């Protein structure tokens, strides 16, 4: 059976309720993060970045009152912009999430180039933004966490690069454990204190 969910989001332009989370989603795809957060009844305001116009259209069709579309290219979004938005709107928590491109890392490719591949730019930029936000938030009243989803079928070399770059040991979760999709995925950012 399908469970119907109704959304009760905070519109991006609305005043921010106490304890609301600013959620910034790089490579947002179809916006699964917004469904998950709504299902958890987390008060939040969403900021989406997605290069594929067709996917952005899906997010806007289903979550128009929920998500502000930021720059379609997440590599144009800076940690300083995120922090400025968080402080000016009174957020006390920033969650930076991403479902980053797997093509530069997947073993399904003939010769995956990893971070040297131009398609890895969102991943490399995510790491830079994450590092600046972690450092900045340590000295502020704003708390920060991140979550990255990535394909599990990657080389050991690229996995080691990701672990070092994100300073996180991934958790392997298989979508088949939660539904009918058969895709094992790595989740980074779950091991922080």
Which helices and strands, and how do they pair?
Layout: E1 21-26, H1 32-39, E2 44-49, H2 53-62, E3 67-69, H3 79-89, E4 93-99, H4 121-138, E5 143-151, H5 156-166, E6 171-174, E7 184-188
Parallel strand pairs: 1-2, 1-4, 2-3, 4-5
Antiparallel strand pairs: 5-7, 6-7
Helix pairs in contact: 3-4
Tell how many strands the DSSP assignment holds: 7
- Residue-averaged pLDDT: 84
Shape: globular
Q: Count the helices. How many?
A: 5
Please tell me how large the radius of gyration is.
Answer: 17 Å
Distance between the termini: 37 Å
Q: Which strands sit side by side, in order, in the main sheet?
A: 3-2-1-4-5-7-6
Structural class computed from helices and strand pairing: alpha/beta
